Amino acid sequence: MKKVTILQFPGTNCEYDTKYAFEKLGANTEILWHKADKVPEDTDLLVIPGGFSYGDYLRSGAIAKFSPVMKAVEAYAKAGGKVLGICNGFQVLTETNLLPGALKRNENLHFLSKYHYLKVINNNNDFLKNLSVGDVINIPIAHHDGNYFIDDAGLQELEDNDQILLRYSDANGNVENPNGSLDSIAGICNKEKNVFGLMPHPERAMEVILGSDDGVAMLQGFLKA
Amino acid sequence: MIKAVVNVSLKAGVLDSQGKAVLHALESLHFNNVKDVRVGKQIVLQLDGNDKKAALADVTKMCEDLLANTVIEDYEIELV
Known about the structure:
heterodimer, A: alpha/beta, Rossmann fold, two-stranded antiparallel sheet, 11 strands, 26% strand, B: alpha+beta, Mth169, Chain: A, 3 strands
């Protein structure tokens, strides 16, 4: 059975949804308070969930970077451990430089909370291996700062290394950009393909009765060998 | 005591949506001579000691480590 460790900062609010989602898929979970100085040794996947760590003060994710647990997270990721950042977790990972780029205020300045279609761009990684390139999935977004930015050289590197995972689209897979993200980017991974970040919330798309279960195939990717 | 004023703003070339929104609002108020608006934030620090050179080095490090995200933001430091 796989073990999923879920970080919790002051202001995190998606840790229990994330726990529910992974337990529904048969994983063991542990919620880890940010004062911890190490990542549990049996961790197969470390998730930084959504929310508003430290009230989004200064910049989203900027203060969480200095929480005691983040040194351990950096060491865990550098040693090849798998890390998934969802929404605020993605912001924390860019602030920590575990993922390239940054997340700016949405272009239209609105907080966006709605279902949005996403197109799978690369699937040669653990996160999206259960999906096919070109698949269109329906996953909720809920963010104010989801406008992905990276400089030209960085964008080229993302493309060259198959690091762009998901782009915002319409139901037919055509580009539809809700927040101004460069190249309509919704999710990326690092060069080594063990650190993943996305603004949409797969853990909120786990059952059809609540709107969509398209998150299942994504999260299952981490649990299947 | 040394007072340090840090201004953080989006880099030139990075679209400033808030600045654009303010520009449009000013236009709707008939301030038609405004060509561009950039919105930033100001962080004011009170520092112990009187060594301005050391203070500048400290505040520069603060900016690099925390106060600005240098992927998208520039910072300016003024010691008063």
